[in-house]
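Dear colleagues,

I hope this message finds you well. In preparation for our joint manuscript, I am sending the DNA-binding transcriptional regulator of glucitol operon (Trujillonella endophytica) sequence together with its predicted structure, so that both groups work from identical material. I would be grateful if you could confirm receipt.
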Amino acid sequence: MFSRLLTPKWVALHLLVAALFVATFFLGHWQLTKAEDGGGAVNWSYALQWPLYGFMGLWFYVRMVREELRRDPDEEEPGNALVLYQRPRIDTTGDPELAAYNAYLAELNEKALGQRGTGGR
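The corresponding structure tokens are as follows:
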């Protein structure tokens, strides 16, 4: 179960999140020193916001990890119920010009799908 979180992609993500979490506290400390040197209210607010950004990012990351652990690993494989294309319905009850145009578009669509299925485009 936890082995999914040890793939190279996830390990890189773990390291990135840890580095960014620590960086937000360094940035908060930096803003705090600027505020103490007379930087004003904006620096005081940023000194509080940076750690909040770090905790907010960590909260989202924990949610993402939980979702990954709850996810079914076989969910990504398409089954027989997957519908790749559904033929459009042509409305022939209204305007005859619109019906003719829709029929023309359907014909073009059939030709395009036929070419794609034979390997040409």
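For the figure legend, we might mention the following. The chain has a mean pLDDT of 82. Residues 2-73 form one domain.

With kind regards,
E.M.
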